[in-house]
Write a structure and sequence with these properties.
Elements lengths: L11 H7 L4 H19 L5 E6 L6 H18 L3 E5 L28 H19 L3 E4 L13 E6 L7 H7 L5 E5 L6 H11 L3 E5 L2 E5 L5 E5 L2 E2 L5 E2 L4 H14 L6 E4 L11 H15 L1 H6 E7 L25 H14 L1
Parallel strand pairs: 1-2, 1-12, 3-4, 4-5, 5-8, 8-11, 11-12
Antiparallel strand pairs: 6-7, 9-10
Amino acid sequence: MAFHFNRKLPIPKEIKAQYPLSAAAAARKAERDRQISAVIRGEDNRFLLIIGPCSADNEVSVMDYICRLVPVQEKVKDKILIIPRIYTNKPRTTGQGYKGMVHQPNPEGAPDLLGGLIAIRKLHLRCLEETGFGAADEMLYPENFWYLSDLLSYVAVGARSVEDQHHRMTASAFDVATGMKNPTSGDLTVMMNSVKAAQSRHSFIYRGWDVDTTGNELAHTILRGSVNKYGRTLPNYHYEDLQTLIGLYAESGLKNPACIVDTNHSNSGKKYLEQIRIAKEVLHSRRLSPDIRKLVKGLMIESYIEDGAQSIHENIYGKSITDPCLGWEKTERLIYEIAEEC
């Protein structure tokens, strides 16, 4: 047999009981979720900013970063709703390398899936309890969502997962904003089909249960650029790209047309400083076109305490060990500049 079964892991209910969410924090999250939903539905004109490290690699530095966002959010609260990125699963193109906190609570340690499930719940719980932010995470593994289902305010389905039926149907059960990225090929019809699937009702098998879902009207698109057959990155955040997406939404009949622009990944070619320019170009497009302003609800930005990226073994505090990120000083300045433009 190809599998070696190590141990039976606790079910989500058991982990949640061990690390419960307080009633006060749950109420704050519900209000925050309501505000985010209002933005996606077009009932609130504020701008969403999904921002934070490429991967959540260290509880201390990630919480340090998120705590820095708290006073910034207060200053821009009339213009921007900040959603911290706490991405605890890291997709790997070849399957090699650091796969995120859920696999390795200690990036330099051996895989520890039980320790990882506890670590990611504790980190998301701390964020919500200590700062009032409900965070965003990527749904890399649909079965793992339920360990965090009471904590997340935003879910992203990544470029490598968006064509998968199980991801799409699982997203149809969520009651929080859920972004479906365009695939790495750049085919926008795949992304639109994924939104349609997520907004629809389904019956399927989930965690050994026969389940029904009601559809998620908050499912929307994320533009993250693509890679062509020669391996070259192709951005899709320009004015013309956004107009194309407006046309696709008009033909689709989907509810709550909305788009988030990912300023990194194939939009920037992973040149992290380009995120500043890309953010400003998207804001400029919103100024030029009322239709783009109505469609583009926010940005996704990769940011941490220190600029750039490092190897796992360098141990520079607050510096990404996966994709390079904007450092804090540039990030804070950019957030205020975005608020001025919104």
